[in-house]
Amino acid sequence: PNASARQSNCYFSSSDGEFDNRYEAMANFDLLREGKIPVKAGWRIYSSGPGILLNQLISNVLGLRLEKDTVILDPVLPKKLDGLIFHYEIHNIPVQIIYDIQSDGPIQAIYINDKPIPFTTKEQPYRPGCAKFKTSYVTDHCSIRITK
Known about the structure:
- The protein has helices spanning about 20-25, 30-35, 50-60, and strands spanning about 10, 15, 40, 45, 65, 70-75, 85-90, 95-100, 110, 115, 120, 130-135, 140-145.
- By secondary structure, it is an alpha+beta fold.
- The protein folds into two domains: about 10-45, no CATH class; about 50-145, Maltose phosphorylase, domain 3, CATH 2.60.420.10.
- The strands form four sheets. It has a five-stranded mixed beta sheet with strand order 7-8-13-9-10, with no helix packed on it.
- A hairpin with a 2-residue loop joins strand 7 and strand 8.
- The radius of gyration is 25 Å and the shape is elongated.
- The chain starts with 10 loop residues before the first strand and ends with a strand.
């Protein structure tokens, strides 16, 4: 009941009594315990908003998800983003992913350094299925081209 207003898109690791200095806090700590002194947000602020946004973009728009030994590609990109290049790390290996978007259909081919690689697909009920390939195909600074 004695908490001051706080920023709503963050969470805080602690609450601090609204004192001007430590001496005031020592002298009036009983008032804080009784709820007569307001508490404000502590000095550590955590905001997961940017991390959630990036995860949604990478996983659900660019369609890149990683499992232990599998790369899953499931992009949901419009044709106007044909040629988009995304630099990322797959299990700490720097890569470049190029989106060759010619249709809204399923992935037709995956190339690593211009060589086609085998992949499997997984059906989905509402749109074309995703493509999966073994992480072992990924090499340092390779170029992965997805053709739809």
